[in-house]
Write a structure and sequence with these properties.
Distance between the termini: 40 Å
Radius of gyration: 22 Å
Strand order of the largest sheet: 2-1-11-10-7-8
Helix content: 10-25%
Strand content: 35-45%
Shape: globular
Number of helices: 1
Number of strands: 21
Largest sheet: 6 strands, antiparallel
Length: 231
């Protein structure tokens, strides 16, 4: 399970496991992570879990948030990333990545030992340059708002060109559409109602969207369209 380690002036003061789909950070009681710092907004930032990824975003705070020293809007967290909020720091630790890295190091060491043994008995072999892995192409899609709270944004079409897009109201009802090389993935983040796709609930899991599907949640009705790849 991933976690956030809170520190002040280099001293660790607490740690928080990311064990829920949405985790809020701010100075106000009621946040999942409460930081007593006047520089922070009441609700300053949050961490969303979408499938196996954690995504941090600034909640339009007054003084902003930094990720690895750079201004943050929204970003997928990588193992070891540091979120700076005022004078406090939150270091993101992915136990899954750490375990994978340990396993990889073990396999590399074993592999090198075998290669060394084989090299001592084999003739020299010419080695060519390694081929570069192909860069994954991301899909292109959009959402058309067919209905929204108070008829908000009806008819508006939004390009899904970012890592994630959120719809709904934080703390009440929220869904996320994540952009992946294999397609767009819809997930329920918070709220009593799970999203429905073509009238069927996606439950607590996630759903890979197909062209033309209709998403419904509370007062929202969204139509998903998948565009062809550009040559």
């Amino acid at each position: 399970m991933a976690k956030l380690i809170l520190s002040l002036n280099g001293t660790v003061i607490n740690q928080f496991f990311i064990d829920k789909p949405s985790l809020t950070i701010g100075r106000e009681q009621g946040n999942d992570i409460v930081i007593d710092d006047a520089v922070l907004s009441r609700q300053h930032a949050r961490v969303l879990t979408v499938e196996k990824d954690q995504i941090v975003e600034d909640l339009q705070s007054s003084n902003g948030t930094l990720l690895n020293g750079r201004p943050l809007t929204r970003q997928i967290l990588q193992h070891g990333d540091v979120i700076q909020l005022g004078s406090h720091h939150l270091r993101y630790m992915s136990t899954r990545v750490a375990a994978d890295a340990d396993l990889e190091r073990t396999m590399i060491i074993k592999g090198l030992s075998r290669m060394a043994e084989a090299a001592a008995q084999a003739a020299p072999v010419a080695v060519g340059p390694a081929a570069r892995p192909a860069k994954a192409r991301l899909p292109e899609g959009c959402i058309t708002v067919r209905a929204g709270p108070g008829h908000s944004g009806c008819g508006e079409t939004l390009r899904l060109d970012r890592v994630i897009a959120t719809f709904g109201t934080p703390g009440e009802q929220l869904l996320v559409i994540a952009r992946r090389p294999q397609g767009y993935v819809l997930s329920h983040v918070e709220g009593p109602q799970t999203p429905r796709v073509n009238g069927q609930s996606i439950g607590s899991g996630s759903h890979t969207l197909c062209d033309g599907e209709l998403i419904e949640m509370a007062d929202w009705r969204l139509e998903f369209r998948l565009a062809a790849f550009n040559p």
